[in-house]
Amino acid sequence: MTTALVFDTVLVANRGEIACRIIGTLRRLGIRSVAVYSDADRGAKHVALADVAVRIGPASVRESYLNADAILAAAASSGARAIHPGYGFLSENAEFATACAAAGIVFVGPAVDALEIMGDKIRARRHVAEHGVAVIPGVADPGLSDDQLIAAAESVGYPLLVKPSAGGGGKGMEIVREADALPAALATARRLAGAAFGDDTLFLERLVSPARHIEVQVLADGAGNVIHLGERECSLQRRHQKVIEEAPSPLLHPDARARIGEAACAVARSVGYTGVGTVEFLVGNDDADEAFFIEMNTRLQVEHGVTELVTGVDLVEWQLRVAAGQELTLGQGDILLTGHAIEARVYAEDPERGFLPSTGSVLALREATGAGVRVDSSLLPGLVVSADYDPLLAKVMVWGEDRATALALLDRALADTTVLGVGTNIEYLRLLVADPHVQAGRLDTGLIDRRLPELAFRQPDDALYAAAALLEHASRWDAAPTGHVTEPWTHHAGWRMGEPRPSRYSFTAAAGTAVEVSVVGRPDDATVTLGGVHRARLHVSGDSLTLELDGILQSFRFARDGQTIWLGQGGFSRALRLRSREEQLVAAVAVDGPRGPEVRTPMPGTVVGVSVASGDTVEEGQTILVVEAMKMEHRVTATRSGIVTVTVLPGDVVRSDQVVASVLSEQSAGEQPS
């Protein structure tokens, strides 16, 4: 293989884990890397890894990572000969590729014609159908209004899927099961598609369920050589967002693999594709021979790593080589799928609270290592995770000789992953991996939705509260005045004439439940009371602690953020907040009553829609406004029926737990001064 590339400098027009992953290949090839960053990403990992980093704007995506002019200016000022767009943002933007060419900079991706055809899902459906590839029945005419889509929906039948014509990643897709729900779904889909892709064109497809989502990795050069590198099983999804992916699919037999692979190559050839791309299919859950074209992603996929693990091919390197004009040195016969690889996506989100986005600073971090483990990550100690961007933090990937081995290794790798300071979905991923259906390979796109209510998340127990209380006890013990070590009243041992006086620590977890823990004695030899009386010993080393509770040893990672103590163990993590004396007194005199009038947002973000006006009458549970964060929407609803007052406007940025509205009963509202 020719090793020399014509690029001496490549700019990576992306952020997060994918920017880090691309920079890794650039460094291995000896190519100078240029990162770009927004104000929110000044301390990001990809900025530190690159040879050069250029600021491109404020935190707003449109003013930074979607700002083509700023990115092209950064390329010019840094001497970059090529731009690698990663995925998302500008990676499938034909106008950006055209602008790169006009500036004399190579766009690491396919030609503009392929971007234009496949970037428009309506046009792509028609194009591949003309080339003999099966598509899902639906209505896919360009420029249809909401009224036209509603009228056409009857011919599609329910349930159906509303899909944006632009973009990808499941953003803007809405499942509609009955006609009454279609208008609201269209409004949501248009808003999300317009915000994410700058194009709110929609179309309708019949919802095929149960089904599997299987995609094929293709690689093509400018000389017309096209090969595929096998398939990936991407059926484990939530809200059309992939969660766990694997290669190869446990469904496909060799003949089916060859057929779907050739269909993907035919799609690539039909548009003169060059570089790395992915052709996605919906496959009958029990029939590997029935496959419908969904779309072609004209870029690198989030889950490309599992293909790399089973083929040994660096896809980013081949993107660069093809963009530099080199021909493939690999033929279809050279591609062998060896073993099994699985990826789990680590997101900043809270599964127990409806997967609301999480924000915060990474206080403690441990990422899995070892044979067969690969982690593509954007995480750093001290990293601030904001609501400005996608919540994907890292991808934990494993390779095993067979699927069972890979599943076991993935579970171990997730257990060895700790992120404290930001809520994550790691425990949820371990529960999914352990699910009997997943273990048996009985997968479909609706499996997570069906199984989620049955997943049993771990709740804080005596050991967790005891560990937190002893940590606080130890910090106060160590803070005792020096020079008085012989005076018992200067310590928190509880010494007094008669029985020792316990030190009491009151904690609240995310659910808001208060738990009081009493401690008597030294942290390394204490009596702890909560629910029952326990003998406890605490040993701390760095950010790890060992708790011996009634003779049972457990280890935790821990971190502190003011009055909040984070504890993590085996993928599980929890923040326990130490209540002040004032909070405890207020709680002690509080009287239970009806729900208050305040309506609060459960997450930080931006108000993208207000459904009611001040003075309107609302019912309990009615949507008042919609908050968007990390490319997800959350509906904020009325806590009770009454007259609403809204205190925010579309475009306002809100923080977690902020009061955004109030609802008063009609009687109370009438008593308010005018």
Overview of the molecule:
By secondary structure, the chain is α+β, with helices and mostly antiparallel strands. Helix content is 27%, strand content 33%. The protein contains 18 helices and 39 strands. Strands 14-13-10-11-12-15-22-20 form an 8-stranded antiparallel β-sheet. Strands 24-25-26-27-28-29-30-31 form an 8-stranded antiparallel barrel. Helix 4 (94-102) packs antiparallel against helix 5 and helix 12 (403-415) packs antiparallel against helix 13. It is globular and about 85 Å long.
Quick rundown:
This protein is α+β, with helices and mostly antiparallel strands.
Question: What distinguishing features does this structure have?
Answer:
single chain; 674 residues; alpha+beta; eight-stranded antiparallel sheet; 39 strands; globular
> Could you say which overall geometry the principal axes of the C-alpha atoms support?
globular
> Could you report the average pLDDT, rounded to the nearest whole number?
91
Unreliable runs, pLDDT <50, ≥5 residues?
590-594
Cα-atom radius of gyration: 28 Å
SSE inventory with pairings:
Blueprint lengths: L8 E4 L3 H13 L3 E7 L6 H5 L2 E6 L10 H11 L3 E3 L9 H9 L3 E2 L4 H8 L1 H10 L7 E2 L6 H11 L3 E5 L9 E3 L5 H16 L4 E5 L4 E10 L5 E13 L2 E7 L6 H17 L4 E10 L2 E11 L6 H8 L3 H9 L16 E8 L1 E2 L5 E2 L2 E2 L2 E3 L6 E5 L6 E2 L6 E9 L2 H13 L2 E3 L5 H9 L1 H5 L6 H5 L10 H17 L24 E6 L5 E9 L2 E6 L1 E10 L2 E6 L2 E10 L2 E6 L2 E7 L2 H9 L8 E3 L4 E6 L6 E2 L4 E7 L2 E6 L4 E5 L6 E2 L4 E6 L1 H6 L3
Parallel strand pairs: 1-2, 1-4, 2-3, 4-5
Antiparallel strand pairs: 6-9, 7-8, 7-9, 10-11, 10-13, 11-12, 12-15, 13-14, 15-22, 16-17, 18-21, 19-23, 20-22, 24-25, 24-31, 25-26, 26-27, 27-28, 28-29, 29-30, 30-31, 32-39, 33-35, 33-38, 34-37, 35-36, 37-39
